[in-house]
UniProtKB/TrEMBL annotation:
Gene3D superfamilies: Hydantoin permease (1.10.4160.10). GO terms for cellular component: plasma membrane. It comes from Vreelandella boliviensis LC1. The chain crosses the membrane at residues 20-39, 51-74, 95-119, 131-149, 158-175, 195-213, 225-251, 257-279, 304-322, 328-349, 370-403. It comes from the Bacteria. This is Cytosine permease.
Length: 421
């Protein structure tokens, strides 16, 4: 805890990490319970052959998007909220800070409540322990995030291989129970869903996470490592989560791997999987909140912001507000991807693949072209009937490219801020 993971500056080359470290942290982030639940909805709607193709295509598109941002993050040493200063302006970037931070604190509340409720249901603990457990986990899960990248790296190096082993044990047992792929092919869908809607579910569940995965891909030693680690997490890891949820629903009518393991008789493994699955996502989530909060407040005190965020998330969990937040958080997921589109267009078209040093850059308070492109992209995503996240990214990037070519007084950037960080 000697430093605070460079919340307001580029990650120096001396602090960069290798492929195993970067992959472990990112895989820990994508091993997420809600992704398995999304997979469960697909498992009810498609036969196994079609399902595998849908999972492959959806996660490939998600991985490409996240990897494109990972390349920029590693090349520049900046995360998404710091890149936002270039494409939205010093003050304009506070909009993205608020949206990203609020989304993450909401999911942190959901995760804190989920582990307490599931643990009581699984182990038969008395119900009066519900609130004490929420408080315990609400503050306990933020410890590795307080330490920073190194703390999450330590946890992920142990947790990711363990979870992979537990998932493989469960999948093998499930295939034996259903008599292999022959048995799976005899399963008939009970729900109806279009292929486009299914791909949207896969992408939409975690594309907001892909936008913020730059918090760790910027620590990669080379852009190649950043891209490979991100593809491993968002194509392979997220795909495995979707597949696990889908197969669990098809075989046991349970999407969550914890419930599936219990149904298979692996109670101890199920409890361990619950802790590791939730913890490796929770610390990443609260870390995301902290870096967004640091940029919003222009403070280097990332650990203090982390604890503050954990306190807010715990209060939301104890107050039962986490259930009310879910539809709003899913809606916000529609408005986050266009930020990535503007960031990519700004990096390649305006800055020609290389940002100037953040500390010396003369940035405006508001980059009106970037803000306008984001608004157009967000509107397109909200009203699009087909693949809203990808539509938002593409329209935002295209709008920014067009606006860069327009010379109009109302599109000019506002006066530069005098307060440089």
């Amino acid at each position: 805890m000697r430093h605070s993971d460079y919340p307001l500056s580029e990650v120096p080359l001396s602090a960069r990490k290798g492929l195993f470290s970067t992959s472990a942290v990112l895989l820990g982030f994508t091993f997420f319970t809600a992704t398995m639940w999304a997979g469960g909805t697909l498992g009810q709607a498609f036969p196994i052959g079609q399902l595998l193709w849908i999972i492959l295509i959806g996660n490939l598109l998600l991985g490409i998007y996240a990897a494109a941002l990972a390349y920029i993050a590693c090349q520049s040493g900046l995360n998404s909220v710091l890149m936002g200063r270039f494409c939205f302006g010093e003050k304009g970037s506070k909009l993205s800070d608020f949206i990203l931070g609020f989304t993450q604190i909401g999911w942190y509340a959901w995760g804190t409540a989920t582990i307490a409720l599931v643990l009581i249901r699984t182990t038969g603990m008395p119900e009066w322990l519900e609130i004490p457990l929420m408080v315990l986990f609400g503050f306990g899960f933020c410890i590795t995030a307080m330490i920073g990248y190194r703390g999450m790296d330590w946890l992920s190096r142990f947790a990711v291989p363990a979870m992979m082993l537990f998932i493989l044990i469960s999948l093998f047992t499930g295939l034996v129970d259903v008599r292999g792929f022959a048995g799976l092919s005899q399963q008939t869908p009970t729900e109806s869903m279009s292929v486009a809607a299914a791909i949207t579910v896969i992408i939409g569940t975690f594309i907001s996470g892909g936008t913020q995965a730059t918090n760790w891909s910027r620590f990669a030693k080379t852009p190649k490592i950043a891209v490979i680690a991100t593809m491993a997490a968002f194509f392979v890891g997220n795909g495995l989560m979707v597949l696990t949820g889908a197969l669990g629903t098809m075989i046991y009518q349970q999407a969550d791997i914890v419930d599936v393991l219990i149904a298979q008789g692996f109670v101890t493994i199920a409890v361990l999987m619950l802790f590791l699955n939730i913890w490796t996502t929770q610390d990443n989530t609260i870390y995301n909140f902290a870096v967004a909060g640091c940029n919003l407040l222009r403070t280097e005190k990332r650990r203090l912001v982390t604890v503050g965020g954990a306190a807010i998330g715990t209060v939301l969990a104890v107050g039962g507000m986490y259930n009310l937040l879910i539809p709003f958080l899913v809606l916000l997921g529609t408005f986050i991807p266009p930020m990535g589109g503007v960031i990519m267009a700004d990096f390649w078209l305006k800055h020609k693949g290389r940002y100037p040093s953040l500390s010396s850059a003369a940035l405006p308070d508001f980059n009106r072209r970037g803000l306008a492109a984001y608004a157009i992209g967000a509107g397109a995503a909200y009203f699009s009937p087909l693949l809203p996240p990808l539509v938002g990214v593409a329209v935002a990037a295209g709008s920014y490219a067009v606006l860069l070519r327009l010379k109009h007084a109302t599109l000019g950037d506002s006066l530069p801020s005098t307060a440089k960080q």
